[in-house]
Amino acid sequence: MKSLQINHLQVCYAQQTILQDLNLQIQDDDILCLLGASGCGKTTLLKAIAGLVPLTQGTIVLNQRDLSQVPVEQRKIGMIFQDYALFPHLTVAQNIAFGLGKTPKTAQAEIVAEMAALVQLSAFLQRYPHELSGGQQQRVAIARSLACKPDLLLLDEPFSNIDSQVRYQLIEEMKGILKQQQVSAVFVTHSKEEAFVFADKLALMEQGKIVQFGEPVELYQRPHSRFVADFLGSGSYLPCRLSDPQTLESELGQLRGQSVLTLANGQPIDRLKPLFCLLRPQMLQLSITGKPNATIIGRHFLGHTFEYQLKVGEQQLSVYAQDNLAIGRQVRLAAQSDLINLFH
Length: 344
Hints:
Layout: E1 3-13, E2 16-27, E3 31-35, H1 42-50, E4 57-62, E5 65-66, E6 77-80, H2 92-96, H3 105-118, H4 134-147, E7 152-156, H5 164-181, E8 184-189, H6 192-198, E9 201-206, E10 209-214, H7 216-221, H8 226-232, E11 236-244, E12 247-250, E13 253-256, E14 275-279, E15 284-287, E16 294-301, E17 306-312, E18 315-321, E19 330-335, E20 341-343
Parallel strand pairs: 3-8, 3-9, 6-7, 7-8
Antiparallel strand pairs: 1-2, 1-4, 4-5, 9-10, 11-12, 11-14, 12-13, 14-20, 15-19, 16-17, 16-19, 17-18
């Protein structure tokens, strides 16, 4: 079984700790995203996996092989950079073949043809990088990395220089290629949208630590902290109180959980501390029928829907709705009770 295991990893520069006691694991052809703000340590972690920075402590194990003493060139790890790192004086074919130096020429030609077909560049093999679009240059970088049959592919902000109009098409294409080739990947981004589309597993980082790890939908729907909740999407925190172990009372009325309610991190609720329920816009339902409990105080037309700002008691909440409603209108607002995330 293919796997990447990182155990108790620590990296320090000049007596400053950059990565602290990191642990994570991916298997088979998983795509892992390292997500976080600038300076959180995600690129340092990528470099540590590649062997470009020394480890202060811990181990990195790829396919049951401890990489601690393995030189960079022997790790069977491919890398794709933000700026593509193509050689401007080489053709597409020559760029793809660059890492195949010891492979016989006939075999090289076959691999180049195969990789070019894989990334839909067979008609561009004799062109130079400056004759290609950004998306096409990124495809060349992908083909060059995969030509060497890596056990793992590392990608550092691979989509940041791609036009937004074609970015998500390229993300879908690259994900399909990696799955087809059964190659695991770790990629760095600061864009949660890219992470949601591309990743099978998501590690959200803050100040050199992984604060939550799991599938993207799990982190979005079940954040363990306010930091995770706020980083991954907009939402409001509605004051509430616990009336019984499964029921909350709030300005929106009762919210009843499917089991005994706990804090989002699994800890028990302290009844002596203020309690707040995270409500994302899509967790709320706006209705023009029923007894009003909210007033529209603002709105934004988003093309496919409206985003409304509503005043509920002393609180302000956001909700999406298809109806074209006027500011000042009173409406009925209700919340889904199957995704209750509570914080002190």
